[in-house]
Write a structure and sequence with these properties.
Helices cover about 75% and strands about 0% of the residues. The protein has about 140 residues and is an all-alpha fold.
């Protein structure tokens, strides 16, 4: 739930600052949302590298996939790259599109965590699916913006 809170709070704060100051970039939903996505992705990416969340993420990787620790590291790096990419106007749309693909690709791990007894605290699957759709919607705002 923390990533959703960060996304919403940073986006709303950036948009409010843009509205109050007339800042051209922040006075638009697309860049404010990009800032929210970047903050959210920095938070989620940190879990890929720091204990104890790293071990929990490794446990979420479906067993049919090879080298779970390397995959967790790779997805953390991709999240950080996406966070940087959405902040650069010239790459924002491409980065957001790639993040949509990443969110879709990672969703089976969230399904596994919600269904299995992995000792991982996760939100119920229907709610997790809704949150995933909100993350994708934020990416779409960046693309369309």
């Amino acid at each position: 739930m923390a990533p959703l809170v960060v996304l919403v709070a940073v986006t709303a704060l950036a948009r409010l600052i843009g509205w109050l100051t007339g800042n051209g970039l922040l006075d638009a939903w697309a860049y404010a949302t990009a800032l929210g996505l970047a903050a959210m992705l920095a938070l989620t990416a940190s879990a890929h590298f720091l204990q104890p969340r790293r071990d929990a993420l490794i446990a979420m990787v479906p067993p049919r996939l090879p080298n779970a620790p390397a995959l967790v590291t790779l997805t953390g790096v991709l999240e950080l790259a996406g966070a940087v990419g959405v902040l650069i106007p010239a790459t924002a749309a491409l980065a957001a599109a790639c993040l949509i693909a990443l969110l879709v690709a990672l969703f089976p791990a969230n399904v596994r965590a919600a269904r299995a007894e992995l000792g991982i605290k996760t939100m119920p699957l229907p709610l997790r699916g809704l949150v995933q759709l909100l993350f994708i919607a934020a990416c779409v705002v960046v693309i369309v913006g």
